[in-house]
Amino acid sequence: MDRNELLSRVRKIEIKTRALSRNIFAGEYHSAFKGRGMSFSEVREYQVGDDVRHIDWNVTARFNRPYVEVYEEERELTVMLLVDVSSSLAFGTRSCYKNEMVTEIAATLAYSAILNNDKIGVVFFSDQIEKYIAPKKGKKHILNIISHLLDFHPEHKGTDIGNAIEFLMRTQRKSCTSFVISDFLDVRDYSHALDIMSRKHDAAAIQVYDKYMSELPAVGLVKVQDAEDGTERYIDTSSRRIRDAHHQHWVERQRVLVDRMNKSNMDLVSVRTDEDYVKALISLFAKRMRP
Predict the structure, then answer these.
(1) What distance in Å separates the CA atoms of residue 119 and residue 176, rounded to the nearest whole number?
(2) Phi and psi (nearest 5°) for 176?
């Protein structure tokens, strides 16, 4: 797309996702993704039950009565988005393409991070690492991320989630909050990578999919093409047996995905392209706030 069109689309995404982040997600995000360190907050007078190890002896001596140091959880986080840009995301039969919804979700999370004074970075991945944007703060940084989300052209077509996670582990030495945003159409077993990531980082997964990935319409003979390897074939969608087989394949794929996430203690939400992703994100945040 040309520069004017890109700027116009960036502005539309910015307005929508910034409003969502400020009006809906800011509080939930703050509660769901907590900082892991403690920072000094204030000194106050000792109260019964306070830990004596926190007594500030200098202040105590000055006022001739005990005072304690109060610490609070340090909120600043580094948030990393692992965004799937493989060819299978350029598909949609309902209200939008999968990659369009991925863009809005990623932008909303990015704005939520910035509103909470967190750094935000992005890894664009296919079956290779396509681009890495190091975590920073600021509006200019956010707009740069949105521009890439809207107008990124990957060099490769496949999907390798494990490779993306390994790259994250190499670039983010300190613990961070990470979101894997993908349709998860990866034939490789990336379970080990998930385990390693979830042990070091505060990780969650967001699956974006199209309705026809789970249910084929009965529209007769159709030619379909695998977006990642280019293979083509004809499918007789008027056959109940074929439609049922397609659905069962989806059910089994989802079972494997959910099982992988559960074993790695990672929260997962799935959202269809004709559904409201706001509800999916609120659901994800709610999962993380449960005791």
Answers:
(1) 10
(2) -140, 170
Helix (H, G, I), strand (E, B), or coil: what is residue 59? helix
Residue positions counted in the chain: 291
How far is 282 from 206, CA to CA, in rounded Å?
12
Q: Is 167 exposed, middle or buried (0-12, 13-18, 19+ CB in 10 A)?
A: middle
Whether 29 contacts 105, CB under 8 Å: no
Task: Specify which residues 68 forms β-bridges with.
Answer: 44, 55
| DSSP-based helix, strand, coil % in the chain, nearest 5 | 45, 25, 30
In this structure, how many other beta carbons lie within 10 angstroms of the beta carbon of residue 168? 25
Contact between residue 159 and residue 126 where contact means Cβ atoms under 8 Å apart: yes
Of the candidates 152, 139, 150, 147, the one whose C-alpha atom is nearest the C-alpha of residue 113 is 139
What is the rounded distance in angstroms from the CA atom of residue 119 to the CA atom of residue 101? 22
Rounded Cα–Cα distance for residues 207 and 246 (Å) = 19
Q: Whole-structure pTM over 0.70, yes or no?
A: yes
From first to last of its 291 residues, what are the pLDDT tens digits of the chain? 666 776 687 777 878 777 777 766 666 666 676 554 555 557 888 888 788 888 999 989 988 999 888 765 555 689 999 999 999 887 766 667 888 899 999 998 988 888 878 899 999 999 999 999 999 998 899 889 999 998 888 999 999 999 999 999 999 988 889 999 999 999 899 999 999 999 999 999 999 998 888 888 878 887 776 666 777 888 888 889 999 998 999 999 999 999 999 999 999 999 999 898 888 988 888 777 665
